[in-house]
Amino acid sequence: MNSQHGLPDDTAERPAVTTGTPAPVGRKGKVKRERAGFGVVLVVLVVLALLVGGGWAAAYAMAGDKLPNGTTVAGVKVGTLTPQEARERLRARLAARVARPVTVTADGKTAQVVPADAGVTVDYAASVAAAGAARSWDPRDLWNHYTGGGSVEPVVEVDEAAFRKAKATLDQKLGAPAKDGAVTLGRDGVHTTAAVVGAELDADQLRQRLVSAVASTTRTVDLTLHPLAPTIDDADVQKAVDTFANPAMSGPVTLLFGKSPVVLRPTEFGPTITLAPKDGALQPTLDTKRLDALIQAGIAEHADAPVDATVKLVGGKPKVIAAKPGVSFDQQQVASTFLALVTRPEGQRQEAVKATVANPKISTAEAQSWKITQKVSTFTTAFPYAPYRNTNIGRAAELVNGTILKPGDTFSLNGTVGERTRENGFTEGWTIQNGVFYSDLGGGVSQMATTTFNAMFFAGLQDIQHKPHSLYISRYPVGREATVAWPTVDLKFKNDTPYGVLVHTLFKPSTPSSSGSVTVSMWSTKTWDITTKTGSRYNAAPFKKRVIRDTNCEETVGAPGFDIDVWRYFHKPGSSAVEKSEKFHTHYIPQDEVTCKPPKQ
Fold first, then answer.
1. Run of H or E residues at 236
2. Is residue 496 domain-shared with residue 558, that is, in the same domain?
3. Is the residue at 213 inside a domain?
4. Residue 75: helix, strand or coil by DSSP?
5. Global pTM?
6. Which of 95, 423, 428, 543 could form a disulfide with 590 if both were Cys (CB 3.0 to 4.6 A apart)?
7. Any idea what DSSP says for residue 316?
8. CB-based burial, 538-549: b 16+ in 10 Å, e otherwise
9. pLDDT tens digit sequence for 455-465
10. Full residue range of the structural domain in which residue 9 is found
11. CA 197/CA 192 separation, integer angstroms
């Protein structure tokens, strides 16, 4: 043993020869001289000395838990840092890359996406662990620690839900949606719509490029669009036409309800059938409500629909019109039968369906129990000539005429007349808005409201809702009138008697030389005699002069506003004693003197 170094004689290093052939070392034979930098040689010699000299533990202690020298993650230097220091440095450098938009181009179009919004995140702890942040006794790990690490890719995770959402947004901007082919059945036959192949980004390619964007500073990626096939292609469309649409529209279908045939023609039933995508094919679905309406109309033509009992004026007197039973059927069973018949060939498109007797909702006995026997009130108002009044008041009177109120029923003028539209038979006329006359659809219907209100008033029915005009109109009873406006301002009253009420109207149109009139009468059994009293006007308010610059304007003369009270007294038929009374208070605003001028240019 070498007493000075504690090593065996045959393993002691000897000085290297700078030129020529290297000398042998002990009994090991020849060694080659390393060509490397002085620093690396020095580190290697130190490590070897430590290991060989019993310094393995010292090397382990010196390495600690720091990352290998020269290690980088996504280009960020983390060598010789502790794991915590490395995580903090990666977060500081890579978080910005995740938050910075990436420009995506495809087929000449450009859009941007933020990796973080697409669910891309960096697992900093896993990235540091992958870079070698772990203590090890393995001499190879220690060697790697001191001789230098390498370049490591970051560990990146992708939230698939967020990624799919971001991809869908990019597909909208860069690609094109696929469009299913379609088949529609209309009144004029079969129509087809060709399928359209769309385009979308490749999901794997997009995901890879967004992940790569975290490991680099490049913010532009070029992607490829791939064809996006529709769910229903042209072959599916042709199959639906051949197997269903054309056979269905080839002729009528006949359903037999007892002895009553209901013939449904293609022009009628075509719109009730929809061909919708299901399981990769176009399959028929049926609008059972529309089909039911067609069948009910067909049944009605054969007088097989149930008819409710009612009361009508016949020869000027109320008469009970008897109820009639009709035919009823199971809607789903009929629909199934129809779909089974509709694709059959000619001569096989008829089948009987189970039908039962349908009783009317209102029986003859119920109508008789209403005891509508006499006229209990009537009221008439007149109106000056105007074509719109003839149209609107006449149409409202037509819709109200024949209304039956069973005991406990509430009448609604808006509910009975409906919205004042051209389709419903109304036209433009003058209405009052904020104390000024303007043209609007349904102008004049308030004449019907006032007349009906007074008929209700003298029939002794219960007032539920009525609103007087804001301005006093001289042709109406002061304090005893009503206006309406769709859909909020309504006239409502309740039949709080034990008898039914028939509302009858009589309309007389105006002419350029004569006034028109509308009469509303209530028929029932007399419950009350009604008397009334009108108080004096009070709280008079002067009118103002106004200039309105609007083409939709009507000039008016001024009239003062005032308050007034009206009382209704209830007497038992034939008695003068007052059983109860009601007070109706009305406030009329002044009618300003309005001058209309064109709008300023």
1. helix 234-240
2. yes
3. no
4. coil
5. 0.54
6. 543
7. T
8. eeeeebeeeebe
9. 999 999 999 99
10. 1-33
11. 16
